[in-house]
Design brief:
six-stranded mixed sheet; globular; Chloramphenicol Acetyltransferase; disordered C terminus; single chain; about 475 residues; alpha+beta; 18 strands
């Protein structure tokens, strides 16, 4: 089933080139996704869908080629759909634990650079349904674009008249409040960010060794320049079990879905966004996990790099990478969950006013243009300043169908870069919140307890609204005892 023809090539953007060159044996630049289906999906039907919908994006027929001086997209004259889309089977009981192990193995296995850098595995029999696992290299597109690509495989009804209708029933509804929340401040000055990013990386080694130079940059007066100086002068993240030498094996785990309405209720009562609540719960889970390993984390704050979209949502299907990164403080040293939530919310508010995302987009573009030695300096510079990557994607709040099979659960993980060894993923879909972890096996050999701790942190904050409902119905002593047990 080869697709023969004349090989063509086109230049790769500088930001896409940066993501292609970021790959290392310890951190593969793949976005890994899992769709758990309520019905059974046949392999041949999946291949037809991939051919008609996924491959309608022409880039996925192209290989990513880097000759050392430049990178480009080259069409694959020997393209074979059977290699890219094939069946797999789980051993033993074929339960969730075995599925997590299999996804972990795939997340640890490089894609073949002699072919287009993507692959789908179909597990045809899992808990009465099927599972579709996708792996796509980050150089093809960022998370928002790939979410749109994956949604293009699905329909809003079991027997749709036209699968494109999904965009009409979901995207316009959320366009003004979901993806736009962090975008507007960042878009201003984007071109200047690219220019300043290039200048900064030209002096990458100097900036690492000479904080006075970073301070001098700040005197130039523009807000973007000031934030560049701030980003470059951030202290390295503190040492914890999450930081350290990385291996080549990843571990993946995810929690059972929890009701989105519960999280929204917590946010309304506590004056926080859903995003704030979920990231505060993630911080609490990281805290208790480290404590279970004997670490004293009181007073410690670590950072997460959070991807922020920098393009209009309607352009998401154009592929490519158009996002920046912001550094979010995670106060794992704060023992009180309410104080932890307050601090996360304050950090998020500050980031929404900043242009940090546009700045890092500029730096990523500069990385793509810079010599290899400077690229490594920049990569190490930014990865030392964070402990984890955290993504929170609000998906469609309606059931989706893949070849007539309802999508029951979905999860994805973006890659980590440099010396960062952990990723936290939060995805809301069809009234549920899905939380997952991907981590280097040397840093987090057992991610399941971390996932369980996240669920427990949600339970803690859920108690606050319940306490208000119980007002006058239980004694103060009983209420205090309940809180103490959870907090």
């Amino acid at each position: 089933m080869a697709d023969s023809g004349r090989s063509t090539r086109e230049a790769m953007t500088k930001v896409d080139t940066a993501w292609l060159r970021m790959e290392s044996p310890t951190n593969l630049m793949m976005i890994t996704g899992v769709l758990i289906l309520a019905g059974k999906l046949e392999l041949n039907r999946l291949r037809r869908i991939i051919t008609t919908r996924f491959l309608s994006f022409r880039r996925f027929r192209h290989k990513a080629v880097d000759d050392g001086s430049s990178a480009f997209w080259q069409s694959d004259p020997d393209f074979d759909i059977e290699w890219h889309v094939h069946a797999a089977a789980l051993p033993g009981k074929a339960d969730k634990l075995e599925l997590e192990k299999y996804v972990s193995e795939l997340a640890s296995t490089p894609l073949d650079h002699a072919r287009p850098l993507w692959q789908f595995q179909l597990i045809e029999n899992y808990e009465g349904g099927s599972v579709l696992i996708s792996r796509i290299h980050h150089c093809y597109a960022d998370g928002l674009a790939l979410v749109q690509v994956m949604l293009s495989l699905t329909d809003a009804a079991p027997r749709p008249q036209q699968h494109k209708e999904l965009g009409k029933v979901w995207l316009p509804k959320d366009q003004g409040n979901v993806f736009e929340r962090l975008l507007q401040p960042a878009r201003a000055g984007l071109a200047k960010a690219v220019t300043l990013g290039g200048k900064a990386l030209e002096k990458g080694n100097e900036l690492l060794q000479n904080p006075v130079l970073a301070a001098e940059v700040a005197k130039q007066g523009s807000e973007i320049t000031r934030e560049l100086a701030i980003a470059l002068s951030l202290a390295d993240d503190p040492p914890t079990a999450f930081k350290g030498p990385l291996g080549v094996n990843k571990r993946c785990a995810w929690a059972d879905p929890l009701p989105l309405d519960e999280v929204k209720a917590i946010g309304r009562i506590l004056g926080a966004t859903v995003n704030d609540v979920l990231l505060a719960c993630a911080a609490g889970a990281l805290r208790s996990y480290l404590q279970s390993r004997g670490e004293n984390v009181d007073g410690v704050t670590i950072r997460a790099t959070v991807p922020v979209n920098l393009r209009p949502l309607e352009h998401a299907k154009k592929l490519g990478n158009h996002f920046g990164l912001v550094f979010l403080d995670l106060p794992i040293g704060e023992p009180n969950p309410l104080s932890r939530l307050e601090r996360v919310a304050a950090s998020m508010r500050e980031l929404k006013r900043s242009r940090q995302a546009a700045l890092t987009f500029g730096l990523l573009a500069a990385v793509g243009m810079a010599p290899i030695a400077v690229q490594r300096v920049a990569l190490e510079l930014f990865s030392r300043k964070a402990t984890t990557v955290a993504t929170n994607v609000p998906g469609p709040q309606m059931p989706l169908y893949l070849a007539g099979c309802q999508v029951r659960e979905m999860m994805f993980w973006v890659p980590q870069n440099g010396s960062i060894g952990m990723g936290l993923s939060i995805l809301s879909y069809n009234g549920k919140v899905h939380f997952g972890v991907i981590a280097d096996a040397k840093r987090v050999p057992d991610p399941e307890p971390l996932v369980e701790r996240f669920m427990r942190e949600v339970e803690k904050l859920t108690l606050i609204p319940l306490m208000e409902q119980w007002d006058g119905e239980i004694s103060a002593a009983d209420a205090e005892a309940t809180l103490v047990r959870y907090l």
